Amino acid sequence: MSNLADTPRDPRSLNADEAERLLTGWGHKSYRVTQLLGWLYKKRADSIDAMSDLPQGLRDQLADEFSLRPLELAREQSSRDGTVKFLWRLPDGELIESVLIPASIGRDGSQSNRRTLCVSSQVGCAYGCTFCASGLMGYKRNLAASEIVDQVLAVERWRLAKGVDSHRPEPLVNNIVMMGMGEPLANYDNLIRALEIFNSPWGLNIGARKITVSTSGLAPQIRRLAETPQQYHLAISLHGATDAVRDKIMPVNRKYPLEELISACEAYQQAKGRMIWVEYILIDGVNTGPEQVEALSCLAKRLQCKVNLIPYNPVDGIELKRPSDETVARFRDGLHHLGVRVTVRTEKGTDIDAACGQLRLKSEKKPAPSQALGQAG
Ligand code: SF4
Fold first, then answer.
1. Catalytic residue check, 356
2. Same structural domain for residues 210 and 282?
3. b/e code 178-209 from CB counts within 10 Å (16+ = b)
């Protein structure tokens, strides 16, 4: 496991209060704080030296304590539907993924200008869900808040370098889902700090309602998140509607069984007054039976939530199968018949390794990335 403790901090983990305390403590005027935050989060500087309107003395002080370590693009895959998958190399050589999903149709079927980035929170994952490429790799480490934030900044730098959507004055990414590699709520403190930077006017200024935290079911952390003032959206990766099925495919359920998870979700809903989304990956012969339809409808009604069905995207090295279109339709219609609001996710990036963790998994298996790049742009 890599040790980042000895390396200088990346300043893109600073929030406004900390930047204020730091700079005024060094004897600088408050307006320098606004300038610094502007360089970090609006102008997306890739070095302290690039912050040209900060006095040299302040830049030297910053350079003594901090180091900007931008993510390096290791690989990129572009889908015919506009989805782009990025493999980033971290300063210690570890690899993580983000996926840019341009949506023309919203979840409710309306036109949408939502441009979503699916963001990773950890290198690998400790939770070992049997269907997941990230789980297959095991856990390596938590991402620092700066490494979570820089996934969005790096996409903006990529866009600038490539001239993507250059007619658009506003940032490319306007919607964030913490649904990439890792369990976000297992990296709680860094997650909350990164969300603050995403959300704040001095940061990336992305509305809390456009930020989704997706969890496999860490009930105590859901209750903690419920106590934050921001209206972040919560999505639950359920994937099984009974403890028997969930225990089999999601080991987290043995620690936080369904009743504990659902009552934490109710607490979240009560605190925020917001609807929760339930994500349900359909895996052939594992969680597609009529008893799951029945149980899922009870949970969905109890939470008054919408259910998003996702046909399984097969992963190399995992012997699980995608169900037939008929099975997906039968499951969806069964829920619908029982009064549940249900959608089947419009698939994105089916011609690339869009399921999270796949691109990294392939890269680790093939030590020569330049050969393995395949369809990458
Ligand atoms: S589904 Fe999520 S929690 Fe489960 S192993 Fe994959 S990344 Fe971890």
1. yes
2. yes
3. bbbbbbbbbbbebbbbbbbbbbbebbbebebe
